[in-house]
What we know:
The structure holds 2 protein chains of 2 kinds.
Chain A: H1 3-37, H2 42-46, H3 59-90, H4 95-109, H5 112-126, H6 133-157, H7 161-169, H8 174-203, H9 242-252, H10 258-292
Helix pairs in contact in A: 1-10, 3-6, 3-8, 4-6, 5-6, 6-8, 7-8, 8-10, 9-10
Chain B: E1 2-4, E2 7-9, H1 14-19, H2 22-41, H3 43-81, H4 83-86, H5 92-97, E3 101-102, E4 113-114, H6 117-148, H7 150-166, H8 169-187, H9 195-205, H10 207-219, H11 223-231, H12 236-247, H13 249-265, H14 268-273, H15 291-298, H16 307-337
Antiparallel strand pairs in B: 1-2, 3-4
Helix pairs in contact in B: 3-16, 6-7, 6-9, 6-10, 6-13, 6-15, 7-10, 8-9, 10-13, 11-12, 13-16, 15-16
Amino acid sequence: xxxxxxxxxxxxxxxxxxxxxxxxxxxxxxxxxxxxxxxxxxxxxxxxxxxxxxxxxxxxxxxxxxxxxxxxxxxxxxxxxxxxxxxxxxxxxxxxxxxxxxxxxxxxxxxxxxxxxxxxxxxxxxxxxxxxxxxxxxxxxxxxxxxxxxxxxxxxxxxxxxxxxxxxxxxxxxxxxxxxxxxxxxxxxxxxxxxxxxxxxxxxxxxxxxxxxxxxxxxxxxxxxxxxxxxxxxxxxxxxxxxxxxxxxxxxxxxxxxxxxxxxxxxxxxxxxxxxxxxxxxxxxxxxxxxxxx
Amino acid sequence: xxxxxxxxxxxxxxxxxxxxxxxxxxxxxxxxxxxxxxxxxxxxxxxxxxxxxxxxxxxxxxxxxxxxxxxxxxxxxxxxxxxxxxxxxxxxxxxxxxxxxxxxxxxxxxxxxxxxxxxxxxxxxxxxxxxxxxxxxxxxxxxxxxxxxxxxxxxxxxxxxxxxxxxxxxxxxxxxxxxxxxxxxxxxxxxxxxxxxxxxxxxxxxxxxxxxxxxxxxxxxxxxxxxxxxxxxxxxxxxxxxxxxxxxxxxxxxxxxxxxxxxxxxxxxxxxxxxxxxxxxxxxxxxxxxxxxxxxxxxxxxxxxxxxxxxxxxxxxxxxxxxxxxxxxxxxxxxxxxxx
Lengths: 294, 340
């Protein structure tokens, strides 16, 4: 076999591989959306699930997912951003920086079920909160932290050195330069990375099974006092998220319409992730346009 | 300004200071200099530098929090995970290599047995098979993206891979459960819940990790290497296979090991399609149980502090240990492989 034939065969193989992956993605998305879209209607999106009969919805689960995401991002974004700033701007070569990097790497490769176990010990049992939305949000924060640190370090490093040098030359301090020049220029990267990270957190389930629990208590959506035990805003109540709900109905539910609920929930989850990805790209280009005035 | 000796002193102070010996002179100069001059000229600078220090301190504490969390996770899981061996007196060998899983066998029949080898074997099988399928495909796609169609490959495949990475693991599990499992049952026999279903689902899930890490390492290779190879008369495939892939092998291997780690630690997607039978599989159509699925299934039904529950924590410790092992592999082997 001469080398030209080998080369052509290899090209065919590379194309086939790429097309196979695109085909797989197309099949997956098509399957999820075609099966799921028919299920989704207003009733499905707002009613609570039923425990025995068919016809339940996923209203509280959708709310819990977003509310937990809100708390998790509230906890991770500031810490992740500042840690990223430290690593990109201040950290010098040495054992402490190496330790920090090693720990972030370790955290990011930990199986999320292990984070869930840690959460069960610390955020559920030691705090005495029991299965609660806040315990889940803390576990999600641990899952999300390494990603957030990496996103912000990369975004900050990608800002051109000339910009910060110009700022320093005008007499501003390093800290002022970071907040007035570097972070604003890094904003498009921060936003994209942050929203995509939020999409990952939204679909996380393994870390939540034993931290925020597999039940959603009866909620009164007119009760907006966060301390009331009926209020959806109370962060110290069990809160089953959408991803956990899919797992639960498939493994231990008694309802007859498991397939319907799972297809609908899977479609909602994927649509939200899709929406996050598209928003991230759009918002980043919008912010970029606004800031560079081009 | 007047020079006095080798020291720079303030005008008007020179005569007094000049009479004092060098060391004192320097000390006085520094005190006066800092107190009067710096306060006058750089007064605001002092305020700023405090903000600078506080800001730097807060940023450092946030980075240090990652260290704290990691250490806390290691400490808590280790302490809890060792209680099987310290409190329940199970030997490590029995836990790792025992094949009998009867954690609730009453004492009169010989007491409980917590051999976790079937779960360990299940985890190893399912993740190795997943990498065997996912790694070649992932590397092919990475090469395609960087070498064959850099422009539109990047524009189409990059978002596609981000989307693939964004699909939640329970959704992968549910699709496996609703399509792959019946397909295997109808066309290959068995229950459908099998090692085969598990590793096929995982092989798709680890693709994004392998593709993005490998394509990053291919993209940073110097252009000249490729140009040199092509100018020597090598075909595109020869260049890819004999120059680019070997040069990027450290990064590609990192991607593969990260994929392996993800497959080994994945819980729910796997748990939904493998059948969760605690036995060492003899064929890829046999149902299996993994460490992660055993933890997921039993943690809610066992009471904290019992032997059964403690074994689950030991499995968690085992998962943690293996994920360290993967990091060590990446650090040591890959570093040795990187081109000098």
